[in-house]
Write a structure and sequence with these properties.
Low-confidence stretches: none
Number of strands: 21
Strand content: 15-25%
Number of helices: 18
CATH class of the largest domain: Alpha Beta
Number of domains: 3
Strand order of the largest sheet: 8-13-12-11-9-10
Helix content: 25-40%
Mean pLDDT: 88
CATH architecture of the largest domain: 3-Layer(aba) Sandwich
Distance between the termini: 57 Å
Length: about 500
């Protein structure tokens, strides 16, 4: 059966343009709604708005747009039923042969306005009439369906039925999520695009009730692709790190759960620019969280830069429009509330055979013991506190070099993460990245490194770390202390004129 007309209306626009281009090349007329129609037009594809097709405008803020006889009559008419065909001829209800719909993201953002009504109705209509209508609800099905249409002009009945079964399973899961939310019950799991790797499945189950503080479960995804497992993990890492900098304009850039860039600034734009410059290579394809609503100046910092997701308390309308035009893929996530100091909580990790629980690493009382002959200057204490705050979000063994890129404004100059030994994290990673960043700015390395603060998340097991720091030109160190060789490390600092603070508080992160 020839596909003459397709209705495309999707929240997740993954694969949309490839499907639409393929259908248009086959001579299929494209009907669409709202943002989907705008995306198709922006790609230069001919598209008819549903409101033009039905002759009736969208009403009630878009609540009613596809609930119309010209839509459902087009979908549900039986092509081999003469009475159906005569009725549709008399009422001018042209057939719709393919329906591609996915739903408002209720599972990840539950609420009255994210309860999709028109979408499930179209899905169910098309799935019921799958003998005559192809129903697509999963972007992973687009390529093989399009390939069949290009090669054969149609789909076999078994393939249509399989798509219909998937469609009814999707609306059933969607309705179950809504019913559970209305009953105040734990939300069902939300399927994600994939796990850590594409061959792994994954899901997300929002907490009920949700946390009182800003969190990803109640955040709204304003734009971009569906979230994957890694996106959620990195987004959570970014949010937890930036939350501790809530008192000032700040940005944290996360790559594989580690802060590769972090900075405070007089403005949010200045903070984001400084954070990006901390490691411009690693920042490519990162997840970013910021402490203030994104304004246009901040959005423009990302011009020409690829980012997976940007998380903020909110987005100014012009900033949102700029970022939406910048990329169809970037996930723009609005927390819907200001950031505040993190609340105490329990962290749970599953291992094979059991569950581990611990309190979050918040609010530990830190000492400030100057253990060396050289005195740690008061003017660098705020910089040191920034370094401690960020360093505890870096995977152990963690070393961070913090610097003032502008008066009173702090940023990562270099960091080393996740190494089996601390001296490699210091010498081979943090110091080398710092030197690279200093060279890119055309600054004097000796002057800059002498005014940085090196922060270690745990004690130095040997004085070789001190020797490496001294060789690099570092003159200020903050560490927990507590090693059997603390005396050797202090002696090495004294030998090189390094000021070292012991805080008495370790911040391992595994």
């Amino acid at each position: 059966m020839k596909i003459r007309r397709a209705l495309l209306s999707v929240s997740d626009k993954t694969g949309l343009l490839e499907l639409a281009r393929g259908l248009a090349a086959l001579g299929v007329e494209l009907l669409s709604t709202g943002g989907t129609a705008a995306a198709l037009r922006a790609a230069g594809l001919p598209v008819t708005d549903v409101s033009a097709h039905t002759g009736h405008p969208e009403i009630l803020d878009g609540r009613v747009k596809t609930l119309h006889p010209r839509i459902h009559g087009g979908i549900l008419q039986r092509r081999d039923n003469p009475a159906d065909q005569e009725t549709c001829r008399q009422l001018d209800l042209p057939p719709i042969d393919l329906v591609c719909v996915n739903l408002y993201p209720f599972e990840s953002n539950p609420g009255i306005e994210t309860m999709d009504i028109g979408g499930p109705a179209m899905i169910r209509s098309a799935a019921k009439n799958h003998a005559d209508v192809i129903i697509l609800t999963d972007p992973t099905d687009y390529p093989h369906v399009l390939a069949d249409l290009q090669a054969k002009g149609d789909l076999p009945h078994a393939a249509r039925q399989a798509l219909a079964q998937k469609a009814f399973a999707r609306t059933a899961a969607y309705d179950t999520a809504i019913a559970a939310w209305l009953a105040g019950q734990p939300a069902p799991e939300v399927p994600l695009r994939y796990g850590e790797n594409p061959h792994q499945t994954a899901s997300f189950r929002p907490a009920v009730p949700p946390p009182a503080e800003a969190n990803l479960a109640t955040a709204r995804i304003l734009h971009g692709k569906e979230m994957s497992y890694n996106n959620y993990v990195d987004a959570d890492a970014a949010l937890e790190a930036v939350r501790e900098l809530h008192a000032t304009p700040a940005a944290v850039i996360i790559k594989h759960t580690n802060p590769c860039g972090a900075a405070t600034g007089i403005t949010l734009a200045a903070a984001l620019a400084a954070a990006w410059e901390g490691d411009a290579v690693s920042s490519f394809g990162s997840v970013i969280a910021v402490t203030r609503p994104v304004d246009l100046a901040t959005a423009q910092v990302l011009k020409g830069r690829f980012v997976e997701a940007l998380i903020a308390p909110d987005f100014a309308p012009d900033a949102l429009a700029f970022l939406q035009a910048k990329s169809k893929d970037i996930r723009l996530i609005s927390l819907g509330q200001p950031l505040a100091a993190p609340l105490p909580r329990q962290l749970v990790r599953h291992i094979n055979g059991g569950t581990l629980t611990q309190s979050a690493d918040l609010g530990a009382t830190e000492q400030w013991n100057n253990v060396t002959k050289a005195l740690f200057p008061d003017r660098l204490r705020a910089l040191a506190q920034f370094g401690i705050t960020v360093c505890k979000h870096i995977k152990s063994n963690a070393i961070l070099l913090a610097w003032e890129y502008a008066p009173g404004q702090a940023a990562i100059l270099g960091m080393g993460a996740g190494q089996p030994n601390r001296v490699d994290a210091l010498r081979k990673l943090a110091v080398e990245k710092a030197r690279e960043n200093i060279a890119l700015r055309g600054l004097d390395a000796a002057a800059v490194l002498a005014d940085t603060v090196l922060v270690s998340d745990a004690f130095f097991p040997f004085p070789d770390n001190i020797e490496a720091a001294a060789a690099a030109g570092v003159r200020h160190i903050v560490a927990p202390g507590g090693s059997k060789r603390d005396a050797d490390c202090i002696a090495a600092c004294d030998q090189h004129g390094i000021a070292m603070i012991f805080t008495g508080c370790r911040h391992f992160r595994h």
